[in-house]
Design brief:
Blueprint lengths: L5 H14 L6 H4 L1 H40 L4 H10 L6 H10 L1 H17 L5
């Protein structure tokens, strides 16, 4: 008697369709299209998990630059001053601080300014 893969095939198709829930048209109804779509969406998800990190870092830097300029500092000077002052806050924290805790961010900026003024110039 010939063996069939009926139950296993149905299980695997069910698993695929579960992952493709919400996809429109054939992308959510036809096995081959579902497979292709899931493969592509997995690749996009993998790629964009890395892109997301880059995008957020750019956003934090842009916010920091705007906040620093309100305190008469450029972003590059600010970061350099943080290193000299041994302030180990990351860009995400500083960006949140600039938005929600303006007084705290001003204190950090003042500390950076005083460190930059006391540091010997490279030129």
């Amino acid at each position: 008697m010939r063996t069939t893969v009926g139950p296993a095939r149905n299980r695997s198709k069910k698993r695929l369709f579960k992952r493709a829930k919400g996809y429109v048209g054939g992308r959510g109804r036809l096995t081959r299209s579902v497979k292709e779509t899931l493969l592509r969406s997995g690749a996009y998800a993998f790629r964009d998990r890395r892109t997301k990190k880059r995008d957020f870092r750019r956003l934090w830097i842009t916010r920091l630059n705007a906040a620093c300029r309100q305190h008469d500092l450029r972003y590059s000077e600010f970061i350099h001053g943080l290193k000299l002052a041994n302030i180990e806050l990351d860009r995400k924290t500083l960006s949140e601080m600039a938005i929600h805790d303006e007084a705290g961010f001003k204190d950090v900026c003042d500390q950076v300014k005083s460190t930059l003024q006391s540091a010997p110039s490279a030129s």
